[in-house]
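Async update (no meeting this week)

Hi team, since we skipped the sync, here's where things stand on the single-chain job. The sequence we agreed to prioritize is pasted below, unchanged from the tracker. I ran it this morning and attached the output directly underneath so nobody has to dig for it. Comments welcome in thread, and please keep replies under the output.
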Amino acid sequence: MIAELKNAKMIVVEGTLYPLLTRQKNQGLLSYRWEESPQGPPRKYYSITDKGKELLQEMDSAWQDVVETIALIRNKKNLN
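Output:
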């Protein structure tokens, strides 16, 4: 997961990612399960909860509003 975020040009370090995941779990947005690993210690796998999906949908809608507003501003600027 960290490698994927870094490839997407999002600077992420373990010291910031895992506290964020814990906070979201405590808020009921994520759940996790432990699985044995063939190599090394057991691994924790996170899943989004129904509450997390609802919040994600709300945030996506708000983000779309921001994107549309920026597009309007840019278009208005280009017309002048």
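Quick observations from my side:
The first strand starts at residue 30 and ends at 35.
Residues 1-48 form a domain with the Arc Repressor Mutant, subunit A fold (CATH 1.10.10.10).
Reply here if anything looks off.
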